């Protein structure tokens, strides 16, 4: 695949001395969907703003479609669509004019058929002659999405696009995302809804404290989710794991009242049957057994907590 967004050692330090980005390196392939996860203040919006040319980086390079965002900003910016977190629209303008004007800002010729299609896809066509200030918050967010799509970008940034919106808009949004993906559009998504990242992303990146801790194929990350834990509660606590159980790579609970076994659910054999037989053969009496599985959210929290280690 061909890289369409290339970020090299990107830094952003504000006048106050705060380092919002600390040397980000990231390559995004044409046509992929990348989900960026991170806590509030992690640097997600700053990174997007820098790539889109809204925020000037302190150091580093960014290229979009081979165009440097500073030296060749006009060509780079034409390739980018952005749906920001904040709703900032001209309150007294009509919906149709707002979207049409946005297309013109990028030097694209008038195309009312395309604008109509975008508005219909976003359930906005019946609002085309309404003023922005007459719309609900959800409808205004739909207008932001329409504006971002109006000039047919090849890279689309969605900064928390479904935060606080209704289920219908979320469904419309992901339907459009699938259509854009089929057309080869690259999509970078920031979200607090980890299940959305899990559902639509090709790769998942985790950013915290201005550092990119991890960028990983979703399939590889989901393989981690295949790890489950079997907790074997014992009738009596043990001071140590019997030598006869050493082949099972068990962990002893702090109070000695349980043995914990991690296994891969995708494997042909989990080893559980053999383990339970070995536990009884070691003279240990079972009180209870239970299984648990890590969620993507737990993995995310652990990675942020451990700084990507």
Task: Provide a concise account of the structure shown.
With 309 residues, this protein is of the alpha/beta class. The protein has helices at residues 44-51, 73-78, 95-105, 112-121, 137-149, 167-182, 194-200, 218-225, 272-281, 296-306; strands spanning 3-13, 19-29, 33-37, 59-64, 67-68, 80-83, 155-159, 186-190, 203-208, 211-217, 227-234, 251-252, 258-264, 286-293.
Break the fold down into its secondary structure elements and pairings:
Blueprint: E1 3-13, E2 19-29, E3 33-37, H1 44-51, E4 59-64, E5 67-68, H2 73-78, E6 80-83, H3 95-105, H4 112-121, H5 137-149, E7 155-159, H6 167-182, E8 186-190, H7 194-200, E9 203-208, E10 211-217, H8 218-225, E11 227-234, E12 251-252, E13 258-264, H9 272-281, E14 286-293, H10 296-306
Helix pairs in contact: 3-5
Keywords: ATP-binding, Nucleotide-binding, Transport
Pfam families: ABC_tran
Domain ABC transporter: 5-234
């Amino acid at each position: 695949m061909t890289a369409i967004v290339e970020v090299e050692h990107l830094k952003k330090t504000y006048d106050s001395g705060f380092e919002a980005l600390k040397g980000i390196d990231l390559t995004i392939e044409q046509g992929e969907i990348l989900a960026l996860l991170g806590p509030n203040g992690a640097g997600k919006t700053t990174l997007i703003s820098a790539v889109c040319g809204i925020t000037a980086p302190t150091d580093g390079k960014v290229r979009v479609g081979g165009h440097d965002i500073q030296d060749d900003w006009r060509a780079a910016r034409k390739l980018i669509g952005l749906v920001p977190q904040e709703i900032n629209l001209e309150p007294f303008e009509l919906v149709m004019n707002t979207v049409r004007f946005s297309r013109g800002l990028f030097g694209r010729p008038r195309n009312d058929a395309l604008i109509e299609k975008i508005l219909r896809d976003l359930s906005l066509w019946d609002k085309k002659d309404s003023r922005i200030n007459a719309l609900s918050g959800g409808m205004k967010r739909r207008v932001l999405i329409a504006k971002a799509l109006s000039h047919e970008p090849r890279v689309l940034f969605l900064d928390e696009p479904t935060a606080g919106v209704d289920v219908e808009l979320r469904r419309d949004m992901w339907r459009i995302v699938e259509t854009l993906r089929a057309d080869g559009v690259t999509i970078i998504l920031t979200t607090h809804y980890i299940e959305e990242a899990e559902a639509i992303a090709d790769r998942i990146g985790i950013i915290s404290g201005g550092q990119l801790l991890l960028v990983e194929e979703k399939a590889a990350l989901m393989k981690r989710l295949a790890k489950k834990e079997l907790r074997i509660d014992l009738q009596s606590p043990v001071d140590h794991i019997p030598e006869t159980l050493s082949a099972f790579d068990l962990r002893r609970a702090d109070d000695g009242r349980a043995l914990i076994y991690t296994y891969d659910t995708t494997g042909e054999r989990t080893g559980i049957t053999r383990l339970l037989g070995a536990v009884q053969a070691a003279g240990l009496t079972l009180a209870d057994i239970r299984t648990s599985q890590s969620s993507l959210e737990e993995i995310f929290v652990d990675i942020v907590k451990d700084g990507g280690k």
